[in-house]
């Protein structure tokens, strides 16, 4: 059992907000966390993929009215969009009687944008949390390589061997393509979407070129863009925005694109062992995406993430912008003896960051230059989590 760092934030939100939406891919641990958090308060759990639990909501208003004194956990809530207007009314009813927090915990496998398309908004009554896979801070630095290879889904990470882990991830991908994704929009050919997903894995950390991807899978650019939007809404793909601030520089304007879970990257590319990974061309980009996902999962709310690249070669892999305007420039290196290249220094001259950091696979933290520090991924994640 892993302690999920998001648990404290989820508890805090439930203590101050009538409804909380906890969103993340299937099998990432949402239900386990929800039941753990609800253990110390009166609660009722409904799995809306279960016919028996859905039957309890045949008269949803009557059933939910009987549980206004409890936290009601609604799992896979996107399957019953008709509930949203009802929840709004029940929240307002409870507010009038003095209950202002901790009424509903909504678990979903899609981003809230998709939920809004099928239900009435709960604006002003709900807060949102995105749940990622396990991070290196949650598993411990000693499991970093295994976490990188297998990804952050608990069942994949805890498989008895590499072959079973890979088999689990391949089954996960197939289930998403054939069963889950068709729930969220028009019917998409599973093989077409698999090809796109695989191309994104090959292109891990590259600039997003929708027109080229569209040609490769035989669809128009608008259709390809909608497929990428869907994978992004399902929290399976990340589009990292470019930084734009200095009008005197010619900066890259395209987003970078990542398959968010490193284990899925490797499954899509049929990489089953660490030896296979280290000899594969995707190794550097895979490590970069793995570090970015871990760092952003640990970054406080309000911190914005970008990358920086100019036509002149200045580049920063990850730029964190804090709410007070402070900037952290982070370079990601797979080498155990990292060296900072000229492009990073040029970018820092443009950006003037408060911190210049190089994340590398080792565990020791030390100075590469007077103002540039090499740090371990685990140490930087811990720093981001420390208030």
UniProtKB/TrEMBL annotation:
InterPro entries: AAA_14, DUF4143, P-loop_NTPase
Residue stretches making up the AAA domain: 18-138
Pfam families, per the entry: AAA_14 (PF13173), DUF4143 (PF13635)
Boundaries of every DUF4143 domain copy: 178-335
Protein name: AAA+ ATPase domain-containing protein
Organism field: Hydrogenophaga pseudoflava
């Amino acid at each position: 059992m892993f302690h999920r760092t998001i648990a404290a934030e989820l508890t805090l939100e439930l203590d101050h907000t009538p409804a909380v939406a906890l969103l993340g891919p299937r099998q990432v641990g949402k239900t386990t966390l929800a039941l753990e958090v609800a253990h110390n308060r009166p609660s009722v759990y409904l799995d809306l993929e279960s016919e028996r639990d859905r039957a309890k909501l045949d008269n949803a208003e009557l059933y939910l009215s009987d549980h206004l004194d409890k936290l009601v956990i609604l799992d896979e809530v996107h399957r019953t969009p008709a509930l949203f207007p009802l929840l709004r009314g029940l929240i307002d009813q409870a507010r009038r009687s003095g209950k202002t927090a901790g009424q509903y915990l909504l678990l979903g496998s899609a981003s809230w944008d998709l939920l809004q398309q099928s239900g009435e908004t709960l604006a002003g009554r709900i807060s949102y949390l995105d749940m990622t896979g396990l991070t290196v801070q949650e598993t411990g630095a000693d499991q970093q390589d295994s976490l990188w290879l297998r990804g952050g889904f608990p069942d994949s990470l805890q498989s008895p061997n590499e072959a079973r882990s890979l088999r689990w991830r391949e089954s996960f991908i197939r289930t998403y393509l054939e069963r889950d994704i068709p729930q969220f929009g028009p019917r998409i050919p599973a093989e077409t979407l698999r090809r796109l997903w695989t191309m994104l894995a090959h292109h891990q950390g590259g600039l997003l070129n929708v027109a080229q991807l569209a040609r490769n899978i035989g669809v128009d650019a608008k259709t390809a863009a909608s497929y990428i939007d869907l994978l992004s809404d399902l929290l399976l793909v990340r589009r990292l925005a470019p930084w734009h601030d200095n009008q005197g520089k010619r900066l890259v304007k395209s987003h970078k694109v990542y398959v968010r879970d490193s284990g899925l990257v490797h499954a899509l590319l049929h990489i089953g062992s660490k030896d296979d990974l280290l000899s594969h061309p995707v190794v550097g980009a895979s490590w970069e995406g793995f570090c970015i996902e871990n760092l952003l999962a640990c970054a406080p709310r309000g911190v914005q993430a970008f990358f920086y690249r100019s036509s002149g070669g200045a580049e920063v892999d990850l730029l964190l912008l804090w709410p007070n305007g402070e900037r952290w420039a982070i370079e990601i290196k797979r080498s155990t003896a990292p060296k900072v290249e000229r492009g990073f220094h040029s970018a820092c001259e443009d950006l003037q960051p408060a911190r210049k950091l190089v994340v590398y696979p080792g565990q020791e933290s030390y100075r590469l230059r007077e103002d540039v520090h090499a740090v371990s991924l685990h140490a930087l994640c811990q720093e981001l989590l420390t208030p």
